[in-house]
């Protein structure tokens, strides 16, 4: 039985992100999350009855894990409980474990009306599933399943825009003091670990990427934007539509620590900020029903063979936001 009750979330690094702290906005986000959590709780029966959406999700995830294993040769919470909960299964799962067992847990991140976008969103990135661009680090397969918080239906045709820094804390697509070599103008045209992908009939998007490193003042994280009703241009980028959400996703602290002990993550001498000390993590996980941390399994026997992470994301499709940016990727490359 699917646990539907859980459906209610190599260079120097730059000196960190700086955000305005707005108490009124934080209260608004908390109110939204409480409402969304109640709405998702009422979705359980509808999702169970809707043509096997949850069963297909379990089967698809198990198949995806097996695919990437072969290719390599091989609950509702608040911030404290999210921090103290392992999202890595403690069971002795193998590639032969039935899908109904392996993916019985299905946590959901209830997305705030507008969370932290950070300074390094780059509009104009390519629609693609493989974001690695030969970047070194721990390989990851990410799956997000998007649900409409009002209707409980999977959101087909949503575009998931995702980006994160590389293994040593550097973002592609920009040149800025502290973000790697600020004299290297070729980074404007780099696209590593950035991309956009369209959700299928079950609201699912899948990416291949690399586990993020860290930089000053922030825990390990991924940035996400949800685009609705966008149009695909001939150059395989998006235009128009609306932004229904801006947010961030995280990993358990123990898996972060394990990754950071490996090369090239361990060449970064900047002090790590743990999840427990990260303001954005606290904001995103403060309300019952929001668990913005990936569930995950190892694809092989150790980190070098990669991780598979998944999360179900509830979106308010009626919301519209206008995220800010300082860089954009154009037909002629990246510009500030």
Automatic annotation (TrEMBL):
<feature type="domain" description="Intradiol ring-cleavage dioxygenases">
    <location>
        <begin position="130"/>
        <end position="219"/>
    </location>
</feature>
<keyword id="KW-0560">Oxidoreductase</keyword>
<protein>
    <submittedName>
        <fullName>Aromatic compound dioxygenase</fullName>
    </submittedName>
</protein>
<keyword id="KW-0223">Dioxygenase</keyword>
<dbReference type="Pfam" id="PF00775">
    <property type="entry name" value="Dioxygenase_C"/>
</dbReference>
<dbReference type="InterPro" id="IPR015889">
    <property type="entry name" value="Intradiol_dOase_core"/>
</dbReference>
<dbReference type="GO" id="GO:0008199">
    <property type="term" value="F:ferric iron binding"/>
</dbReference>
<dbReference type="GO" id="GO:0016702">
    <property type="term" value="F:oxidoreductase activity, acting on single donors with incorporation of molecular oxygen, incorporation of two atoms of oxygen"/>
</dbReference>
<dbReference type="InterPro" id="IPR000627">
    <property type="entry name" value="Intradiol_dOase_C"/>
</dbReference>
């Amino acid at each position: 039985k699917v646990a539907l009750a859980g459906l209610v979330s190599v260079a120097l690094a730059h000196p960190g992100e700086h955000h305005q702290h707005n108490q009124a906005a934080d209260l608004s986000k908390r109110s939204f999350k409480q409402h969304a959590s109640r709405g998702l709780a009422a979705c359980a029966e509808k999702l169970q009855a809707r043509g096997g959406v949850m069963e297909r999700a379990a089967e698809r995830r198990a198949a995806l894990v097996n695919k990437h294993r072969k290719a390599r040769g091989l609950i509702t919470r608040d911030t404290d409980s999210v921090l103290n909960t392992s999202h890595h299964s403690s069971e002795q799962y193998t590639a032969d474990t039935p899908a109904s067992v392996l993916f019985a847990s299905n946590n959901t991140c209830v997305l705030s009306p507008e969370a932290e976008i950070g300074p390094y969103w780059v509009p104009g990135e390519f629609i693609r599933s493989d974001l690695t661009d030969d970047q070194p680090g721990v390989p990851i397969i990410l799956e997000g399943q998007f649900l409409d918080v009002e209707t409980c239906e999977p959101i087909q045709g949503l575009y998931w825009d995702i980006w994160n820094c590389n293994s040593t804390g550097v973002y592609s697509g920009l040149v800025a003091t502290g973000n790697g070599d600020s004299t290297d103008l070729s980074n404007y045209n780099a696209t590593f670990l950035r991309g956009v992908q369209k959700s299928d009939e079950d609201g699912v998007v899948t990416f291949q990427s690399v586990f993020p490193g860290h930089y000053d003042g922030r825990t390990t994280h991924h940035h996400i934007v949800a685009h609705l009703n966008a149009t695909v241009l001939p150059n395989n980028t998006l235009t128009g539509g609306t932004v229904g959400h801006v947010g961030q996703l995280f990993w358990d602290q123990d898996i972060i620590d394990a990754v950071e002990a490996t090369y090239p993550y361990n060449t970064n001498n900047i002090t790590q900020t743990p999840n427990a000390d990260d303001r954005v993590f606290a904001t995103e996980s403060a309300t019952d029903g929001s668990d913005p941390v990936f569930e995950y399994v190892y694809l092989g026997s150790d980190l070098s063979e990669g991780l598979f992470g998944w999360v179900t994301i509830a979106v308010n499709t009626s919301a519209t936001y206008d995220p800010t940016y300082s860089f954009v990727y154009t037909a002629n490359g990246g510009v500030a």
